[in-house]
Amino acid sequence: MFAATITIILAYYGIERLKAAERANIDKVRLDRYSDWKTITDARIDVVKDENPLFRREFINIRYQLFEDLYPAFAIENKKQLRALFNKYFANLIPAFESNNKKQQGCGGIYQSAAYTYFGQNFLFVFLGSVIGVKYDNATEDLLEMYLASLPSDRIIDSLAYQSALERYIKYNN
């Protein structure tokens, strides 16, 4: 009876050790995936960091939470999921991303049209680039629409003034 009790106790602890090893392995895989994903996003952030240092700082601040929401599939399956991620992490920051863009500042915040953005394409490049899994068909268009909707409604939209401001910006920044 004593030997059976010892055997059961040893088996129990053996099973617990196996469970602990399995959890450690799962955590290691998760950290490896985060490291790989971080490398991909860092490369994309490096492309746009000079244009908008605020974006780099803010993206780095939310990066791990975004990873947690995207892991393990790194996919966006529908507009509802995209909107939830956008609203959770970026909707309130979009006006700051636009106004801290060097070109936007150099052009005096004048927009060519209602559909024009100074930082929208760069934002799409980094955010959608971090979604390394499957994206649904209209993800790019939907994200750009959300980005535009987050811009201030009172921004100056004048194509002639924009052309003039852009010419001055190019002249004095090259």
Care to describe what's here?
With 174 residues, the chain is an all-alpha fold. It contains eight helices and two strands; from the N terminus they run αααααβααβα. It has helices at residues 2-48, 53-70, 79-89, 94-99, 102-106, 120-130, 139-150, 159-173; strands at 110-111, 156-157. Strands 1-2 form a two-stranded parallel ribbon. The longest helix is centred in the first third of the chain and has 47 residues, at 2-48. It is elongated, with a radius of gyration of 24 Å.
What keyword list fits this structure?
2 strands, 174 residues, mainly alpha
> Strand share of the residues?
under 5%
Number of helices: 8
The radius of gyration is 24 Å
Largest sheet: 2 strands, parallel
Tell me the total number of β-strands: 2
Which strands sit side by side, in order, in the main sheet?
1-2
Q: List the uncertain runs.
A: none
Structural class: mainly alpha
Overall residue-averaged pLDDT value: 93
Blueprint of the fold:
Blueprint: H1 2-48, H2 53-70, H3 79-89, H4 94-99, H5 102-106, E1 110-111, H6 120-130, H7 139-150, E2 156-157, H8 159-173
Parallel strand pairs: 1-2
Helix pairs in contact: 1-2, 1-6, 3-7, 6-7
Quick structural gist:
This protein is an all-alpha fold and 174 residues long. It is 72% helix and 2% strand. It has a two-stranded parallel sheet with strand order 1-2.
